[in-house]
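Need tokens for this chain, all 306 residues.
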Amino acid sequence: MADLVQTHANTILTLARGFLECRKYVSPEEVTLFIDRHLRARIGTRLIAEQHIALHLASQPDAKGDAMQSRYIGVIDSELRPADMVKSCENFVGEICELKYGIRPSLIINGQADASFTHVPVHLEYILTELLKNAFRAIIETGHEREPVEVTIAAAPDVPHTKLDELRNISIDDQSAHDFSQDGLAEYCSTWEGVLSPLQSAAQNITIRIRDHGGGISPDILPHIWSYSYTTYGDDDAAMADNGNIDGLNAITNSGGNSSTIAGLGYGLPLGRAYAEYFGGSIAVQSLYGWGTDVYLTLKGLGKID
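Here are the structure tokens for all 306 residues:
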């Protein structure tokens, strides 16, 4: 299975280049529809495969564990701190900007910097990298590189589950029986013990706002930002783009990227949205043309471990 995962590591890059070459013959709507369906299915398939491989390797007798690895369940980090990931992505994107533009923009983090939740780190890494690329490039090209990009992290408060929430999820079969009479329900709701162990709280949700003062998005461009293969770079730059970070899940087996381009094939925002929406999250863009852009990334935790 590991060989199969490795063999298909560059699928998205191959698709992107292929559609880039034939975009004169295929409408953008058809490209977006096909790629969106394909990539969303691929995210699930690849995640299952990577999770299986990671769990298998962790179960081996010679597997070495440390404090960091103890947080992981396969490829899922049960204590993922968005602030740490923001700093890591800032360093990566900052190096790209320094190499391409000779300038390294600054970034400040405010809000709940200590917040953590359970999620897939490489999904968050890909999304943040693409959003910071856009923000850094915008402030550099509009001459506002002295204005720091502001990243605000907000963790939604825990919402306790009720007994009614548990009852809605009860499965009934030949091996399980429950007393749904008035007396049985009254007894169940009056105690925290029983056949079903109650969930203490809902999975943590995190919202990250990335604010830049890079002049906002032109009204002519705004309707196209969610279209695959749409890029604000020229054809020559897009054709030469070889983004090692184009697929977040590739980072599990091919960690690190040495890309030197800040924009390229036009897959950043739509692919990032696909990663966010796969687990019920979202990306929303608010542009104030002539001033700047706010991007709101909301991610739902994959569960809460007490």
